[in-house]
Design brief:
Length: 358
């Protein structure tokens, strides 16, 4: 759980910061959209009211008719008030709801056709639209829209944004926790495999580890294991085989074990001039002989115990007749345990070696 919190807490902070920065931007965009919508709406209402309003304004004593006409228009829930100003900037007709702080545009002064007014009850959108008949300007129609619904929708938008980011945070946190858990389990399994040695056997320098991030650790562990094994074997050998209180003597099994551990199962190769066995042609047939040699006496038992290949000059008279196509022959005859690879030297090469170089 603590590992998951390391991912979830920074993620939550980042999403909260993004939401904090996004909400004001969404508010501004929402306000711009609604203002643009109200401007189009005001223009549409003014165009629709042009002809009836022109006829009413030109009638004598038309005040009550104009006000009743305005009252019918403001029955729309978003239209807060309507007023009509003459060309001199005087308010001639206005509904009872028309705010006192909203004035008619002054004659001869450039004024914005659309603006926002902030009152205690909330924001209002004021739109000024010209009224004319047959090319003659009659005045200005002032349409006031109630924008309190914008605040309500803005609050709803903030709530939806909060829910959206909360859902995103929950989904991303869930995915992050699952991935972190899977990665952690894989890491733990890899470390367990390294500790138990399952991934270290048979692969040098950590190449047997499939996870790239674990290979440096595997390589270091392999080096450490090799050092410990070398130290342990050196200590055991000194105590068991060469110490004053030796507990065991050399045997073929012990020799094979030491060579297998020290040389990691590599094949033993012996290269010498003298071969351990000669095949000699006699009247009674081919006879196997062992030459008198200190080298052969010392190394031949090792080859019997550990197997391998002995490379030597084939000097017996029947040596060529007893090898296979690769010049190999298995020895000893009674129980073959290693092979001889015979190399053929001419008489001149043999004389040059023994009586020249040597």
């Amino acid at each position: 759980m603590r590992l998951s919190l390391r991912f979830i807490v920074p993620l939550g902070i980042a999403l909260a910061a993004i939401a904090y920065a996004v909400v004001p931007l969404v508010d501004r965009l929402t306000l711009q959209w609604f203002v643009r919508d109200l401007e189009i709406r005001s223009t549409t209402i003014a165009n629709a009211a042009q002809e009836p309003l022109t006829a009413l304004v030109r009638e004598p004593r038309a005040r009550q008719k104009v006000l009743r006409y305005f009252e019918r228009i403001i029955q729309d829930e978003r239209i807060f008030a309507i007023g009509f100003c003459d060309l001199a900037g005087k308010m001639l007709y206005a509904t009872n709801t028309f705010p006192e702080s909203v004035r008619c545009p002054q004659a001869g002064k450039a004024a914005s056709r659309s603006r926002l007014v902030q009152l205690e009850r909330g924001p209002l959108h004021v739109s000024v639209n010209p009224v004319s008949a047959e090319g003659e300007a009659l005045g200005e129609l002032v349409i006031v829209h109630d924008m309190s619904f914008v605040q309500r929708r803005s609050a709803d938008t903030k709530k939806y944004i909060f829910y959206l980011f909360a859902a995103i945070a929950a989904v991303v946190a869930l995915i992050t926790v699952v991935i972190a858990e899977i990665s952690w389990r894989g890491w733990v399994a890899g470390i367990k495999g390294l500790i138990s040695g399952e991934m270290l056997l048979g692969a040098p320098d950590g190449l047997g580890v499939t996870a790239p991030e674990l290979r440096p650790i595997a390589k270091d562990l392999q080096a450490l294991v090799r050092d410990l094994e070398a130290e342990r074997h050196a200590r055991d050998e000194s105590q068991i085989l060469w110490g004053p209180n030796a507990l065991a003597t050399w045997s073929p099994e012990m020799l094979r074990g030491v060579l297998r551990e020290k040389l990691l199962g590599d094949e033993i190769l012996v290269v010498s001039n003298r071969e351990p066995f000669l095949h000699v042609q006699t009247d009674e047939g081919v006879v196997v002989q062992r030459p008198a040699s200190g080298l052969v006496t010392a190394l031949e038992p090792v080859m019997r115990a550990c197997s391998g290949t002995w490379i030597a000059h084939g000097g017996g008279s029947a040596d060529r007749d007893t090898v296979d196509r690769q010049d190999h022959v298995m020895v000893p005859p009674e129980k073959p345990s290693y092979r001889i690879r015979r190399v053929w030297l001419s008489k001149e090469e043999e004389q040059g070696y023994y009586y020249g170089l040597a």
